[in-house]
Design goal:
This protein is an alpha/beta fold. The protein has 12 helices and 7 strands. It has helices at 7-13, 32-46, 64-67, 80-90, 102-108, 110-118, 159-162, 168-172, 189-207, 222-225, 229-243, 252-260, and strands spanning 52-56, 71-74, 95-101, 124-129, 178-185, 212-218, 247-251.
């Protein structure tokens, strides 16, 4: 007779309602799939799937439409926050989130995300930072590390050629309209759990109408980093996290509780 299934095992093997059963086509070692799973679990736990709308733009993020079992809208490259603003203002009861890569959000879409935060737009951004343009052959992104080799920086990024990396969370942290802001990664179980907590808090900030929320996920791109998956995870911890340290930068809900106590 087989052993009974524990509650822990049930939690591990439950497939989120907010994910379709479409087989994901991301490269081996890519953390997009983990990010999708965490977002879907949060949507299910909050009971908001029927009123959630996903927005993705151009890049590997565009595959998200195949995997999230929610309503979704396509936006032009970098314009996710602009589209989210329009939808949220016309349908304020809708839970809106954008799913954007670093080439999208930190390059062509930088103005959109900064001004959305400045206006305290009440939606959530999931920001995938893998320090490279993943879909379009591995060019340098605004988040590419100093010295990192890409298809457009074959000798490594230099200040003279490409300037310094942009730390998006640090830029946004100074804006009063930000309600929740955190940077997480997904290279180990403890980091995955922390990432899920931050994603959930970001959605809860939106549900409480506190303002703009963003979670940055420091992610892997083994294909264009020219690394094996485990090497890519080690690269994140050894090289990316010193540039992009993990931190909860803003949590207005928690700050409000401290003031009331």
């Amino acid at each position: 007779m087989s052993a009974p299934i524990t509650e822990h095992a049930k939690a591990l093997y439950i497939y989120p309602d907010s994910l379709t059963e479409t087989r994901m086509r991301y490269c081996p070692g890519c953390t997009h799939g983990i990010a999708h799973r965490l977002i879907a679990e949060v949507i299910d736990e909050l009971g908001i799937r029927d009123r959630t709308l996903a927005i993705a733009t151009v890049g590997c993020s565009v595959f998200a439409y195949e995997y999230f079992n929610t309503d979704a809208v396509q936006a032009a490259h970098g314009r996710g926050p602009a589209v989210a603003t329009g939808i949220k203002r016309t349908r304020p009861d809708t839970i809106v989130f954008t799913y954007q890569g670093d080439g999208d959000l930190a390059s062509i879409g930088l103005a959109e995300v900064m001004h959305a935060a400045a206006r305290a737009e009440n939606f959530t951004v999931i920001f995938i930072n893998n320090a490279v343009f993943g879909m379009t052959q591995g060019q340098m992104a605004p988040t590419t590390l100093m010295g990192q080799k890409t298809t457009t920086t074959p000798r490594g990024r230099t200040v003279e050629q490409g300037g310094y990396p942009l730390n998006i969370c640090e830029l946004l942290a100074a804006i009063p309209g930000v309600a929740y802001l955190a940077r997480e990664t997904m290279t180990s179980p403890k980091y995955v759990r922390a990432a899920k907590r931050s994603i959930k808090k970001a959605f809860q900030a939106q549900m409480q109408q506190l303002g703009f929320s963003l979670v940055e996920l420091v992610s892997s791109c083994p294909t264009w980093w020219r690394m094996k998956p485990l090497e890519a995870f080690a690269h994140i911890e050894q090289n990316m996290l010193p540039q992009y340290p993990l931190k909860v930068f803003v949590d207005k809900a928690a700050a409000g509780k401290e003031e009331r106590s």
